[in-house]
Q: What sequence folds into this?
């Protein structure tokens, strides 16, 4: 589904990603690991072509989207649902309106049908009681769960993209988010989760990539990653190993 | 130096393209009526009180100053005429636009800047929604529709403030004051005062939306965007005021 061919991206004279290549199938569950500032979020934004690469090709479902104009990107982007690090809920809308946003824009549902779907989705992510609240009244964990509910509303999407879904959350909220992502794993949709939280990544994904200095130094399974003889990866994992 | 000029030209081009796209979207589906109503409420009703206050005191101050100067020459009966021309064709539109830029323009820039920083604009793009159509067009249209309405109200309040000083404080005839204003209701003054708010509304919304959408760099970037929106709008309002006045005077046969 997603194919990167020698993609390079730089910002402000600094190369963020250097000739990155990989292929991710639509049902795969992938964790992109790396320290802060290694280009993990940039990778997600490139998949959606929210950024334009300096060189290389980005191919989604056999369609080269590298130089596709903005107006032709909409159908490609609809294949994905993204949950940004801070939830990216619309500040001026209530939780109900945030989740209903997609239904109102792209479907012909009646108000009753929209209300039913919104309550269903909020019930699924466990925040139905917050339906009338504004985003600023929610905790970080609740905001992200509402963001997941909003992302679920886009039923035509084939793959979820999670940008640091558990960062800055207390352990209980992080656990709830991970459980939610895990529950969605069985719904015929793959996901890419970008994180520096190793335990969360190990719990969620079956394939792991490790980004360092703009390059993918590792791409493989959990066992391969834990036994890999890559100094940078071993150093990254050592902090987690020390704790555990 | 050449790099700076290139940057300024690039930014001007981006601003121009964004404003044109925002305007052209008025004629393309889908129409975001609800967003337009929200923006008209925010920019129009939200700015009304502060504009009324500013307009009232500008009218009073102007009348006071002119009456004091004219009293020396014995020309107090012309107070209404001069206050009327100044307010309707010049001070009313400019002062209203400056207050509007400070209140609604800065608000637009900071709101859009926050949406950019919090990935809300990216979320719209991922949903397949054109952010220019959803966010910029209602703001441009809202400003272009509301600023003229606010200017008319501000002009009326300013003239009333001028009347209060002229008639109640300085004991001049109310009839003379309002009559001298009625006399100057000529096309060249009315058109000048009527055209400017549309131009200013477009400039304020275009600049504010552009600076808001080009926000980067967290809280400091947001501060910079909001400041830039107001400063650039203010400069362009003053410059375009001169240009519009010049064009209108030229069209009416003045060789100044």
A:
């Amino acid at each position: 589904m997603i194919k990167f061919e020698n993609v390079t991206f730089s910002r402000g004279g600094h190369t963020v990603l250097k000739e990155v290549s990989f292929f991710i199938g639509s049902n795969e569950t992938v964790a992109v690991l790396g320290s802060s500032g290694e280009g993990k979020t940039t990778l997600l934004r490139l998949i959606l072509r929210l950024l334009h690469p300096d060189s290389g090709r980005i191919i989604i479902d056999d369609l080269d989207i590298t130089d596709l104009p903005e107006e032709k990107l909409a159908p490609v982007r609809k294949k994905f649902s993204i949950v940004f690090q801070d939830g990216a809920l619309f500040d001026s809308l209530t939780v109900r309106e945030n989740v209903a946003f997609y239904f109102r824009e792209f479907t012909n549902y009646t108000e009753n049908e929209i209300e039913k779907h919104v309550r269903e989705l909020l019930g699924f992510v466990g925040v139905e009681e917050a339906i009338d609240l504004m985003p600023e009244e929610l905790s970080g964990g609740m905001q992200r769960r509402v963001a997941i509910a909003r992302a679920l509303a886009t039923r035509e999407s084939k793959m979820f993209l999670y940008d640091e879904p558990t960062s800055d959350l207390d352990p209980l909220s992080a656990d709830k988010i991970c459980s939610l992502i895990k529950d969605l794993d069985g719904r015929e949709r793959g996901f890419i989760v970008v994180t520096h939280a190793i335990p969360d990544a190990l719990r969620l994904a079956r394939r792991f990539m490790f980004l360092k200095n703009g390059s993918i130094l590792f791409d493989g399974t959990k066992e391969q990653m834990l036994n890999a003889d890559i100094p940078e990866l071993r150093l990254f994992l050592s902090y987690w190993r020390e704790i555990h | 130096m050449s790099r700076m000029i290139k940057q300024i030209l690039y930014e001007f081009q981006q601003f121009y393209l964004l404003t044109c796209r925002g305007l052209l979207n008025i004629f393309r589906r889908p129409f975001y009526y609800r967003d337009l109503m929200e923006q008209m409420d925010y920019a129009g009703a939200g700015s009304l009180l502060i504009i009324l206050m500013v307009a009232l005191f500008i009218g009073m101050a102007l009348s006071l100053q002119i009456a004091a100067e004219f009293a020396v020459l014995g020309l107090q009966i012309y107070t209404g005429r001069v206050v009327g021309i100044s307010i309707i064709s010049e001070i009313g539109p400019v002062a209203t636009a400056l207050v509007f830029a400070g209140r609604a323009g800065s608000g637009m820039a900071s709101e859009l800047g926050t949406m950019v920083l919090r990935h809300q604009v990216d979320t719209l793009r991922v949903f397949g929604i054109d952010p220019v159509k959803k966010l910029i067009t209602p703001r441009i249209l809202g400003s272009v529709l509301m600023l003229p309405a606010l200017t008319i109200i501000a002009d009326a309040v300013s003239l009333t403030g001028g009347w209060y000083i002229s008639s109640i404080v300085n004991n001049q005839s109310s009839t003379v004051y309002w009559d001298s204003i009625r006399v100057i209701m000529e096309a060249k003054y009315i058109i000048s005062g009527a055209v400017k708010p549309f131009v200013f509304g477009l400039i304020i919304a275009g600049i504010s939306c552009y600076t808001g959408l080009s926000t980067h760099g967290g809280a400091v970037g947001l501060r910079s965007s909001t400041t830039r929106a107001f400063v650039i709008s203010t400069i362009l309002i003053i410059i375009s005021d001169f240009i519009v006045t010049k064009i209108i005077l030229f069209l009416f046969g003045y060789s100044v």
Chain A touches chain B through 26 residues (CB under 8 Å). The CA atoms of residues 122 and 129 of chain A lie 8 Å apart.
